[in-house]
Design a protein that fits this description.
CATH topology: Glutaredoxin
CATH superfamily: Glutaredoxin
Shape: globular
CATH architecture: 3-Layer(aba) Sandwich
Largest sheet: 5 strands, mixed
Radius of gyration: 14 Å
Strand content: 15-25%
Structural class: alpha/beta
Number of helices: 6
Distance between the termini: 48 Å
């Protein structure tokens, strides 16, 4: 059973207020994913403490940098069940995890940050890793420089 909307609304707002597109229905997901070009990030939001204390603050810090994905979106696991299932259907080899963060280039996963890599890490550490991944997506990071 989904969490009450009154409980989730402030958690949603943390992301939408900084530019995240909310994917609340399967159609929203299809519109975001189908024919996707460029870079994108999806945060699987959650009511858990590591989403509140680590994941949401980390993505907020990360997208505050000059280099960031072209598009950012969020789906609320445990609340927007149909949309969450639809997003996960695009990544059948990725085990479900929330919170988690998926980075993509042209619709293909390039980086995945599951819950166990969020728990116990401070937001700045997670944000720094995301910023490094953003640079790789843009072809300006260390991995790109080594090629």
């Amino acid at each position: 059973m989904p969490y009450p909307e009154e409980m989730c609304a402030p958690m949603r707002a943390e992301l939408t207020q900084i530019g995240f597109e909310e994917l609340r229905a399967a159609d929203d997901v299809a519109q975001f994913m189908d024919g996707a070009t460029g870079s994108a990030m999806i945060l699987f939001n959650s009511v858990c403490g590591c989403a509140a204390g680590n994941a949401r603050p980390a993505v907020a810090l990360a997208i505050g940098n000059e280099q960031k994905p072209d598009r950012v979106a969020t789906v609320f696991a445990g609340q927007d069940v149909e949309a969450t299932e639809k997003v996960r259907s695009y990544f059948p080899d990725v085990p479900p995890s929330s919170p988690s963060i998926v980075l993509m280039k042209d619709g293909q996963i390039t980086h995945y940050v599951p819950r166990h890599m969020i728990e116990g890490r401070d937001p700045q550490t997670i944000a720094n890793a995301l910023v490094g991944a953003f640079a790789e997506l843009a072809g300006t990071g260390e991995a790109a420089a080594e090629k």
